[in-house]
Amino acid sequence: MRTLLALLLFPAFAAAVPDFARDVRPILATHCFPCHGPDAKARKAKLRLDTREAAREAIGKADDSAVLTRVFSK
After folding, report:
1. Rounded CA gap, 57 and 18, in Å?
2. CA atoms of 43 and 50, how far apart (whole Å)
3. Band of pLDDT at residue 53, cut at 50, 70 and 90
4. CA 11/CA 2 separation, integer angstroms
5. Distance of CA 59 to the CA centre of its chain
6. CA pair distance 68, 51, nearest whole angstrom
7. What is the pTM assigned to this prediction?
8. In angstroms, rounded to a whole number, what is the distance separating the alpha carbons of residues 6 and 12?
């Protein structure tokens, strides 16, 4: 009940929690998938970001991950 009341009184709190499908995936689809998506011919640097497994593998291999730097930057 408190949560519902808080969301009704302060709708900004509802937007505070990002949803991957709603908030993140569209950004990746627009800016990353053309070069790092499902099309093997267009893919650059053998980096695939359109599947969770491939993205996690790519990020997990890099200590200084450019992807993580961009994700966590302001």
Report:
1. 22
2. 11
3. confident
4. 13
5. 12
6. 16
7. 0.54
8. 10
Residue 5 has pLDDT above 60, yes or no: no
CB neighbour list of residue 58: distance below 8 Å, 6 or more residues apart: 47, 48, 49, 65, 67
Cα distances (Å, whole numbers) of residue 50 to 7, 16, 21, 60:
32, 24, 12, 16
Backbone angles phi, psi at 33, to 5 degrees: -65, -30
Q: Encode pLDDT of 8-48 as tens digits.
A: 565 555 556 777 788 888 888 899 899 989 898 888 887 88
For residues 17, 18, 22, 27, the Cα torsion angle rounded to the nearest 10 degrees is: 160
Q: Residue 34's pLDDT is what?
A: 92
